[in-house]
Amino acid sequence: MEEAVVADRRFTEDLQRAHYDSIADAYQLHYADRCSRQYMREFFFTPMVEGIQLCGMRVLDAMCGSGPTVGFLLEAGATVTGLDISSRVIEDFREKWPGCEAVEASIFGSSIGDASFDCVTIIGGLHHLHPHLDEAMDELHRILKPGGYLCFSEPHIGSVPDLVRRLWYRVDPLFGSNEMGINVDYLEAVNANRFEVVRRQYMGSIAYLFVLNSLAFRVPLWLKPVYAGLACRLEALCNRFVGKRTSCYVTCQWRKRSSIGDGWPEET
To answer: Is 27 inside a domain boundary?
Structure first.
């Protein structure tokens, strides 16, 4: 049984690696442009780590891609390590961030030691891991120090946008066959004895769709700067009112308990 699980997990990873490699050039153009970088800084990075003093922390940027989160983390004074399974991605990461360590490995198992990091950040990586998300959470818990933070932003299930997204995933070749939103209620419940939920914030509307995800909508890159500023201002306003049923993604901040069943972990 264990061998079958491992084989299926490897198949899932191979599928995702091959899929990303097939769209990598277009993906980098649309998600690394100035408009998308500004969107991520304002609506992903900043709320995701709100209240955390990153200066001096060891941070793992898991499923890092070419490292869009790294600049933000370095500016905050963190020491950053990137982790990704794709050799192509890790090569790009090393070229872009030569002062950071880069680990080419699976999120399901790596050479990283127990309790190695103060914080782990993940942007849009968890929803690629179905049906093995629970195993990834085990690994993330293992490599975090007691009191360490797990911060992530992901598409989630249970919303009107998710209903549309599920249909879109089926017909658009840009998306992998195993991609789907995460069930954050389930994740919080099954990890309640290991993580304390610090913050959960539902976000995402017009700018998420047409600025960050311009590739999915086949928006020409030259057109994005024309409307990006207005779209982001509208999104900032909409985020005051969106909830689980109306948002496109969820931003979460968890903290690893000092021991199973504890309340807030002690500071380390």
So the answer is: yes
* Total number of domains in the chain: 1
pLDDT tens figures, 121-174: 999 999 989 889 999 999 999 999 999 999 999 999 999 999 999 988 888 887
Range of the domain at 168: 2-58+125-256
Q: Is the pLDDT of residue 43 over 70?
A: yes
Q: What confidence score (pLDDT) does residue 34 get? A: 96
The DSSP string of the chain is -HHHHHHHHHHHHHHHHHHHHHHHHHHHHHHSSHHHHHHHIIIIIHHHTTT---TT-EEEEET-TT-TTHHHHHHTT-EEEEEES-HHHHHHHHHH-TTSEEEE-BTTB-SPPTT-EEEEEEES-GGGSTT-HHHHHHHHHHHEEEEEEEEEEEEBSSSHHHHHHHHHHHH-TTS-TT---B-HHHHHHHTTTTEEEEEEEEE--HHIIIIITTTTTT--TTTHHHHHHHHHHHHHHHTTT--TTT-SEEEEEEEE-SSTT-SSPPP-
Q: What percentage of the chain exceeds 90 in pLDDT?
A: 73
In a domain, 106, yes or no: no
> Is residue 47 situated within a structural domain?
yes
222 domain-assigned = yes
